Amino acid sequence: MEDLQANIRSLKGVGPKKEQRFLKLNIETLEDLLYHFPRGYEDRREIKKIREVEEGEKTSLELQVHPLKTRRAFGKGPSLLQLVGKDDTGSMVITFFNQPYLSQRITPGTKMRIYGEVKRGPRGLETANPDFILLGDKGENSWQEIFPIYPLTKDVSHKELVKLIRMLLKGIKERAEENFENLPNPLIEENKLCRRRMALEHIHFPQKAKGLKVAKYRLVYEEFFFLMITLNFKKAKVLEQQGTPLQGGKEVQNYLETLPFQATEAQKTVIGEILGDLKGSAPMSRLVQGDVGSGKTVVAMAALVAAAAGNTQGAMMAPTEILAKQHYKTLSHFLEPLGISIGLLTGSLTPKKKKRMQEEIRRGTIDVVVGTHAVIGDKVEFRNLSLVITDEQHRFGVRQRKTLSGKGKNPHVLVMSATPIPRTLAYILYGDLEVSVIDQMPKGRKPVKTQAAEMKGRDRVYEQIKEELNKGRQAYVVCPLIEESETLDLNAAMDLQEQLQGNMLKDYKVGLLHGKMSYIEKEQIMKDFTDGKIQVLVSTTVVEVGVDVPNATVMVIENAERFGLAQLHQLRGRIGRGQHQSYCYLLHQKVKEPTRRRLEIMEQSHDGFEISQKDLEIRGPGELFGLRQHGIYNLKIANFFQHQKILQKVQQDVKKILLEDPGLELEKNRKLRGIIDQKLQRYRD
Ligand code: ADP
Ligand code: MG
To answer: What angle, 0 to 180 degrees and rounded to 10, lies between the N-to-C axes of helices 249-258 and 296-309?
Structure first.
């Protein structure tokens, strides 16, 4: 088992140079090589007649051969063996380079099966260096009917991969099967999985289509299994820790009654789930997912009320200063009247104020600290931290979250995300967290009317915006982030503002907001916008989170084709917040599928979960998860959508194992534990 973790250099013919090339394919160990699966297969089962073959076609043929001539190379030239192959429909020339010894095996009358690319040459059809077997020979059984095609880099050849993988598989064949198996036996039997050895042989070199299917099934199961059990094992470990049990049901009830609106059923349910966690002796690890505007802050505040009720402190982190400040305002407004003191700690505080804030946090006169990453600065010490909330967590590195958690005695952790992903998927990607979903919007929200428009219709779009502005409404104009260069990005935004102010929108006040501005500048612009002094706000994607101006009812997104659906949805969430009908225009260059389809989805759907589900169907989970696309999350064969059924079964199986043996300490789980520890160590996050 262990030796599969050996570096691929342990293979004959692989030295440091090749090792580097293999690293480009993410192949580091022998196991990585075995799990470098073909991206497709070449079907060599159909045997064509010479007359049926088209030029340039790759195909199998069965021919009787007659040697034509062998030529030894002079000097450095290649040796050449040429044959004529015939079937009952015609004949063709087969050339082998550098294999002079073949002339001894291939004698007149020999029947052979070949697979190669057929071209037209001066003497009619021909093929060079085809794969072949001699019929009636004992090699006949080794004819590879379904041939693997591998993902490659330019420095690793297909032939080389095939050779090395064959070699490895051969070595494995000589071992006892139980030693090589990595899944627990009961699971193999119950799920009728094929053995690991057979699966790997067939995924690389399938003999039959059916064998390939069986192999795939087993490997998909295996991949999901190790992902799920690793994440859930991690969670089980957290549950063994001692946290700070918090009561506070009564206080939270009281808080809900002070709100100017009725909490939605979804909010109540999620708050109930959180209170249930907080009561327990183990620290909470919960993710709350809710679409933009679903009211996550109300839920977060409920948890903070419980923390304060237990005479402990809570912290809430936001990814930007603007958002932190906004939370600070909201929390102060709703929680101060309940006797909970709120403090704001951000990077832009003067040193003196910062110091005073830190002092209050240490003494415990502040119950709830709101801030940016400054909250996790070295100098911040809490008197009694029991709860950490991160908002829009996808913007935080996992490590930052850990640092903050390290500041209390195993504090409860609540993560809030507005990147809605389907619940089943969330369970997996956040297998180390519990998941709550706010799946309902507060009453009375009007869906934003959304329209995609090509650039040539741009003037008309801006005319429509003017109509809204004339009614006293306000508008956002968003320009995309240009990945390569923040400066370019900035210039684009500045140009756009100038252009709009100078021409189309010259009768209105057009402001500019971008990421390079200081906090003070941003704050001033936002204040002017909120106060209505600025009517149109041109902005880079910094408006994505946290800006709340109900009078803004229009958004234009320039080059909308460059954004992901999830991001478009987030941006659009900035409007449609007041009583007026809102409009969103997606300006785009000429686009092809699937981009066109994505823009259509935005026109049709207003539900973040539905949008992300569709986005996933079109693009696959790739871009959506950012951070989590590494290490153990990097699936090679399993697909969250195609294989949902298998995934569900895996989930059940994993649950059963961990329920019986949460720490994986039983003798029968020893091997499993070893594999998981190894994975956790390799993919530390
Ligand atoms: P998000 O989930 O995007 O963070 P917020 O917490 O900012 O959403 O809430 C959006 C707006 O909806 C806020 O103005 C908030 O006061 C309001 N809100 C939250 N819950 C309700 C509710 N149950 N009924 C009416 N309005 C609500
Ligand atoms: Mg929010």
So the answer is: 140
Instruction: Report the number of distinct structural domains present in the chain.
Output: 4
Nearest to 35 by CA among 184, 144, 191, 169: 169
Nearest Cα residue to atom 4 of ligand 1: 296
Q: Say yes or no: CB of residue 263 within 6 Å of ligand 1.
A: yes
SS (H, E, C) 330-351: HHHHHHHHHCCCEEEECCCCCH
> Same domain, yes or no, for 118 and 150?
no
Residue type, 423: R
From the CA of 268, how far away is ligand 1's center (Å)? 13
- Pocket flag, ligand 1, residue 608 (CB < 6 Å): no
Strand partners, 71: 80
Give the span between the Cα atoms of 421 and 608, in whole angstroms.
8
Q: How confident is the model at residue 449 (pLDDT cuts 50, 70, 90)?
A: very high
Ligand 1 contact via 646 beta carbon (within 6 Å): no
- Residue 290 CA, closest ligand 1 atom number: 2
Phi, psi of 290 (to 5 degrees): -160, 140
The C-alpha torsion from 446 through 447 and 452 to 453, rounded to 10°, is -10
**pLDDT tens digits for range 106-140:** 888 889 999 999 999 888 899 998 988 888 766 66
- Residues 583, 456 share a domain: yes
Report the nearest-CA residue for atom 15 of ligand 1. Answer: 295
Neighbours of 260 (CB within 10 A): 5
Ligand 1 close to Cβ of residue 578 (< 6 A): no
Q: CA 443 to CA 579: how far, in whole Å?
A: 12
Domain annotation covers residue 320? yes
Pocket test of ligand 1: the residue of 267, 271, 294 to mutate, having most ligand atoms within 8 Å of its CB, is 294
Query: Which among 605, 621, 650 is the end of a domain?
Result: 605
Domain final residue, candidates 605, 625, 651: 605
DSSP H or E run through 83: strand 80-87
Cβ neighbour number for residue 647 with a 10 Å cutoff: 25
Residue nearest atom 9 of ligand 1, based on CA coordinates: 295
**Ligand 1 pocket, 116 CB below 6 A?**
no
Give yes or no for a cis peptide into 38 (omega within 30° of 0).
no
254 & 392 share domain: yes
CA of 569 to the centre of ligand 2 (A): 14
Torsion of CA 639, 641, 642, 647, to 10 degrees: 70
Tell me which residue has tokens 């000429």.
590
Summarize pLDDT for 533-578 with one digit per residue, the tens. 999 999 887 655 556 788 999 999 999 988 888 888 888 988 988 7
- Contact between 274 and 284 under an 8 Å Cβ cutoff? The reply is yes
CATH number at residue 326: 3.40.50.300
Question: Smallest Cα–Cα separation from 306: which of 396, 245, 354?
Answer: 245
The verdict on the CB of residue 419 being under 6 Å from ligand 1 is: no
Average pLDDT over the chain, rounded to an integer: 85
Question: Separation of 576 CA from ligand 2 center, angstroms?
Answer: 15
Exposure of 96 by Cβ count < 10 A (0-12 exposed, 13-18 middle, 19+ buried)?
buried
Domain that holds residue 97: 51-142
